[in-house]
UniProtKB/TrEMBL annotation:
<dbReference type="Pfam" id="PF13640">
    <property type="entry name" value="2OG-FeII_Oxy_3"/>
</dbReference>
<dbReference type="InterPro" id="IPR044862">
    <property type="entry name" value="Pro_4_hyd_alph_FE2OG_OXY"/>
</dbReference>
<protein>
    <recommendedName>
        <fullName>Fe2OG dioxygenase domain-containing protein</fullName>
    </recommendedName>
</protein>
<feature type="domain" description="Fe2OG dioxygenase">
    <location>
        <begin position="115"/>
        <end position="212"/>
    </location>
</feature>
<dbReference type="InterPro" id="IPR005123">
    <property type="entry name" value="Oxoglu/Fe-dep_dioxygenase_dom"/>
</dbReference>
Length: 770
């Protein structure tokens, strides 16, 4: 079966003749010397007084009709001076003219030798024009006309050229006197000069002649047959995209033959056959209702590599240069494909940024298979890293897609492209105050359909408790936009595919509550139950925060049994770590005070009895809910909240914390009576054993330890990690250096500080304890 990518490439590859029915450009020149019989030298840029002098010696320009030559200012109003009366010179003029002719004939697709023969000097003053007409053959071998607009101030006077169903409109006026603009077109093309609105337009008209004038003269390239086939292919492709069973690519990319830098990438700078293909595709795309862009196609690949053979690699070790050909690619491990540097056919830049593409979108699919990379680098093996390679392919390409599929194509750029676009679209719709029948809303509705269809396939997190994210997730951004659009259909689809299946974090709660308020009560209740039960085991605090927000919103809390849903949170509260969880990846993140505060805050409002059950659970697992790190700080925060102070669960937690604090306050608090200090150390090496004996000696205050750096570092780390009551410095006199330790009463000072804090905390908790 022939695919669109294969069929389109096949027909485009038949278009090999470069050129178009017209060519135009701008070139820098050294101002030529210009003289006219009867006047003398003419200054450039043209001065108003000399423009009047030229008109005074000129004749009204005629036009041809059949075999007749007529003068009719209703058809042509301009002034002409015969070539014989015009003298052009200057050291650089001939080379400038040759350069212009070369650009012109290349643009027209003519490869034979061509000469330019001056025909007339034309002066257009305000109101001058020339209606649409064709040039007659003025000399043997003439096939085209070249016009060069000399530096002269004027407005209006655009040149309009038509060939078949195509048209070009050119403004050849230049404000810089060191530049001239030119245009060339085949003699059978209809063309006209639009009225001059001010100033004077001074133009040299040349006949382009084929020398020798033998055989058939060049004609404008015509790709009507190919164009018709292209139009049908594109229309069939567009129609197929509307079918649910269609598997054709969303866009088509045809790599061009010539190399172009990003700075020079534009439709009017395309060369040879590339220009011819573009000239055929532009009207075909328009007829088939497709968008056509020019872009830079980039493919980057990398992966492992290896030397060609062991012995040759050994011989190269002494060489300063590196022969990249000595490496072989093992496999392509990473591959990225992007489109960038977008240009539109009208010459404007398209703000699409960097855009990914699929291999099946290339025309033909194997377009890059036989190309050599633009860059290729090999990295020799270092340490544990094996040899590797990187290579990059870059080509300009023509990119097509059906206009009706623009949003699907945009979605191919990923969320980095679609989310900002949707945000802008939503803001415009909200600002307009329009209803859901507005074009902006319908466009947003269609775009979100594509986005949800390809939403990142994130596996729901199955690990233990995690903290809230510091930045808004893509889920939060998307749901916020759907809420602003009031798109309940998409809200339902989105929640079903994200939070309800475990792709959830606390930063989504504000958007989730707003979304639930927009849905029917039964559906919102089902979603809330599903979200909490699915996520409570790993994110109980986030689920509790969600319930608090729902409880604070009457439109939700008055219609849902939040207490029944809250049971899932209590059932999933963390317990003490299991003995089998011996590896770091198996352990839960530590429970923090805010976790307890959030849960109590939610359950106190939803079901006080359930809150008490949660407190009983926490008190039963002291390894997870440490008093000093978690429960006491949480109880202190709860004691400051009026709505929580009188709740049984808050009082129950305060009582347990007071019991803990009173037990420690009752402990004897006396400064050390001698120099004995706690000598229990985790390390049992000989050096630490010597340190331990010093700590246990009630008579010894100072200790010196002479050892090499590594051993001293180990002893210092032991002092720090065991919080030994020691001050230490390094005496750097002599070798090796000496560690000098003196005992202090840091442990006692810490207990004094702890006692002061315990007394303050206990006083605060008594206010709510029973």
């Amino acid at each position: 079966m022939v695919t669109i990518t294969t069929a389109l490439a096949k027909i485009l590859q038949k278009i090999q003749r470069p050129g178009d029915f017209y060519a135009s450009g701008v070139t820098e020149i050294f101002t030529p010397s210009l003289a006219v019989t009867g006047i003398g030298p003419i200054a450039l840029p043209l001065l108003p007084v000399q423009a009047e002098q030229l008109i005074a010696v000129a004749e009204q320009a005629p036009y041809g009709r059949g075999e007749e030559t007529l003068v009719d200012t209703q058809v042509r109003r301009t002034w002409q001076i015969e070539a014989a009366r015009v003298e052009l010179g200057g050291r650089h003029w001939q080379s400038a003219l040759d350069r212009i002719v070369k650009q012109a004939v290349t643009g027209l697709g003519v490869s034979q030798p061509v000469t330019a023969e001056l025909y007339k000097l034309l002066v257009y003053d305000a109101g001058s024009f020339f209606v649409s007409h064709r040039d007659t053959e003025k000399a043997p071998g003439m096939f085209a006309t070249l016009i060069i607009v000399l530096p002269s101030p004027y407005t209006g006077g655009e040149l309009r050229i038509q060939h078949g169903d195509r048209e070009a409109r050119l403004d050849l006026q230049r404000t810089d006197p060191s530049e001239v603009a030119f245009a060339a077109f085949y003699a059978d093309c209809l063309h006209e000069i639009l009225p001059i609105t001010s100033g004077w337009r001074l133009t040299l008209v040349y006949n382009l002649l084929l020398r020798p004038a033998k055989g058939r003269l060049p004609e404008p390239p015509s790709y009507q047959a190919e164009q018709a086939i292209i139009v049908k292919l594109l229309r069939d492709w567009t129609a197929a995209k509307n079918s649910p069973d269609d598997d054709s690519p969303e866009k088509l990319i045809y790599p061009l033959q010539h190399a172009y830098t990003p700075a020079a990438l534009a439709f009017d700078t395309l060369k040879g056959a590339d220009a011819a293909i573009a000239s055929a595709l532009i009207p075909a795309a328009e007829q088939a209702d497709c968008d056509l862009h020019l872009a830079l196609v980039s493919i980057k690949e990398s992966g492992p590599a290896e030397y060609e053979d062991y012995y040759s690699s050994r011989r190269r070790r002494g060489r300063s240069d590196h022969d990249e050909e000595s490496f072989e690619i093992v496999e392509v491990a990473d591959r990225t494909t992007t489109l960038s540097e977008w240009q539109r056919a009208d010459g404007k830049t398209a703000e699409l940024g960097e855009f990914p593409f699929e291999d099946n979108e290339l025309c033909p699919p194997d377009a890059f298979d036989k190309l050599k990379p633009d860059e290729q680098h090999f990295q020799e093996a270092t340490g544990n890293e094996g040899a590797s390679f990187e290579r990059t392919y870059r080509r300009a390409g023509l990119v097509l897609w059906p206009r009706t599929r623009w949003l699907a194509v945009l979605n191919g750029g990923g969320l980095s492209v679609t989310l900002p676009y949707l945000e802008e679209l939503t803001q415009d719709w909200v600002a307009s105050g329009a209803d859901c029948d507005a074009a902006q809303w319908r466009e947003a509705h269609e775009l979100t359909s594509h986005m949800l269809r390809t939403w990142p396939n994130i596996e729901p997190y199955e690990g233990p408790y995690i903290e809230q994210r510091s930045t808004a997730s893509i889920e939060t951004r998307m749901l916020t936009l759907l809420n602003q659009l009031r798109d309940s259909e998409r809200i339902t689809n989105f929640i079903s595919e994200t939070a309800a299946v475990g792709i959830y974090s606390e930063d989504q709660n504000v958007a989730l509550v707003e979304a639930l308020a927009l849905l029917p009560t039964a559906q919102a209740a089902d979603f809330l139950q599903c979200i909490v039960s699915r996520n409570a085991a790993r994110a109980p605090a986030a689920c509790s925060d969600l319930l608090v927000r729902c409880a604070a919103l009457p439109v939700i809390s008055s219609k849902m049994d939040l207490a029944a849903i809250a049971h899932s949170v209590v059932d999933a509260l963390p317990q003490d770590p299991a003995v089998s969880q011996q590896y770091s990846w198996q352990r839960r993140s530590p429970v923090r005070r805010d976790f307890v505060v959030t849960i109590l805050h939610a359950l106190n409002r939803i079901d006080p009895a359930l809150a008490q059950r949660a407190v009983v659970h926490m008190l039963a697992y002291p390894k997870t809910y440490d008093f000093d790190r978690v429960l006491v700080p949480a109880a202190l925060i709860v004691s400051q909240t009026a709505a929580d102070q009188e709740q049984p669960a808050s009082q129950q937690l305060a009582n347990a914390c007071l019991t803990h604090l009173h037990a420690r306050i009752a402990e004897d608090l006396q400064p050390p009576a001698n120099w004995y200090r706690d000598s229990t150390l985790r390390c049992q090496c000989g050096y630490c054993a010597e340190l331990s004996r010093f700590l246990a000696d009630p008579e010894q205050q100072m200790w010196t330890f002479k050892a090499i750096g590594g051993i001293r570092d180990h002893v210092e780390e032991s002092i720090r990690s065991n919080q030994c009551d020691l001050d230490y410095i390094t005496d750097k006199r002599g070798r090796p250096f000496t560690l000098v330790c003196s005992k202090n009463q840091a442990s006692y000072d810490r207990r004094v500080q702890q006692r002061q804090k315990d007394l303050k905390d206990a006083a605060q908790l008594k206010a709510i304890a029973i």
